Amino acid sequence: MAIETSKVGAGIRGQFPIFEHTTYANSCSQGVLSHHVRAAYEEYLDGWDANGAEWEVWVERADAARAAFARLLRADTSELAVTTSVTQGVSGIVSALDLRARPRIVISEYEFPTVGQIAHAQELRGAEVVHVRPEADGSIPPERFAEAIDERTALVCCTTVSYRTGHRHDVAEIARLAHEAGALCLADSYQAIGAIDFDAHGMGVDLVTGGTVKYLLGSSGLGFLYVRRELLPQLLPSQTGWFADEDIFQMDISDYSPAADARRFDAGTPPVPNIYAGLAGMSIVEEAGTAAIEQHVAGLTARLIAGLDELGAVVVTPRAADRRGPLVCVKSTDVRTLVDTLDAARIVCSERDSNLRISLHLYNVDEDVDTILEALRRHRHLLA
Ligand SMILES: Cc1ncc(COP(=O)(O)O)c(C=O)c1O
Question: Which residues line ligand 1 (CB under 6 A)?
Answer without folding.
Answer: 85-87, 112, 114, 159, 163, 188, 190-191, 211, 223
